[in-house]
Specification:
Length: 248
């Protein structure tokens, strides 16, 4: 089984995001960028499938600026086989990402596309679903467990109040959730080995996909500042305070 894993370069999850003064977006200057955490989970899962003899090849693809090559290298150091960088400095919306991925699927013919459930920068949670629709492939979202079942995949999904298991005929699209696995850290020898792995470079125009945004960001604002807490003497005072605040 050939697995395609799309990986996005995003602001590192440890960074405190600053909104630009003109509220048009967030400040990316001198900010640490990393692989989207959910994509680390999908790379890990694909590599584990390869180690288990289920996957034959793991190809990673990233759509982003030249530096997205570092994100691809990280995936290669974790054990992926080769990478594709679709280079653009533009902000690419999920629909355009899905259209580009559909073209990569047409070229690469994977049996499984394994995406993160969402990118932590735009929080869209759209790309996997849109890709499945464009390809007319079955999809399993929010995967908690993925098992091979003959020609099919059994995907256990995290749903409100429990787990749901669905069976998908391959080729299929699966998006991964947080508890699927714990991604490995790449070892130094594997980081060195990854430097020799192939990364091919393309542009959105090579695939004939128009990536012009369809949405206008009206404004971006910081979350409201939290008001400070107060100390109370005892439980009775706490209950009295909660009552006046209308909380009980
Ligand atoms: P989103 O729909 O933006 O929340 O992203 C969901 C998933 O789609 C991510 O976890 C990635 O697997 C994939 N994805 C989104 N944008 C990109 C991109 N620019 N390059 C590669 N993969 C992407």
């Amino acid at each position: 089984m050939k697995v395609l894993v799309p990986v996005k370069r995003v602001i590192d999850y440890n960074v405190k995001v600053r909104v630009k003064p003109d509220q048009t977006g967030v400040d990316l200057a001198n900010v640490k960028m990393s692989m989207n955490p959910f994509d680390e989970i999908s790379v890990e899962e694909a590599v584990r499938m390869k180690e288990a003899g289920i996957a034959t090849e793991v190809v990673v693809v990233s759509i982003g600026p030249q530096q997205a090559q570092e994100t691809i290298r990280t995936a290669l150091a974790m054990g992926a086989d080769r990478g594709i960088l679709i280079k653009t400095d533009a902000m690419v919306e999920p629909l355009a990402v899905a259209k580009l991925l559909a073209k990569v699927v047409a070229d690469e013919k994977p049996d499984l596309v394994l995406l993160g459930k969402q990118a932590i920068d735009d929080d869209s949670n759209q790309t996997g679903q849109m890709l499945a629709a464009l390809l007319d492939w079955p999809q399993g979202t929010f995967a908690y467990k993925i098992e091979k079942d003959g020609d099919a995949l059994k995907v256990t999904r995290e749903v409100d109040g429990g787990l749901q298991t669905v069976k998908l005929q391959t080729p299929a699209v699966v998006t991964v959730d947080l508890r699927l696995n714990e991604p490995r850290y790449a070892s130094l020898p594997n980081i060195m080995k990854a430097k020799k792995k192939e990364i091919s470079e393309k542009s959105p125009a090579d695939y004939g996909v128009d990536i012009t945004p369809r949405l206008t960001v009206v404004k971006v604002t910081e979350p409201a500042a939290r008001s400070g807490g107060v100390k109370v003497e005892d439980v009775a005072a706490l209950v009295a305070k909660l009552k006046t605040a209308g909380a009980v």
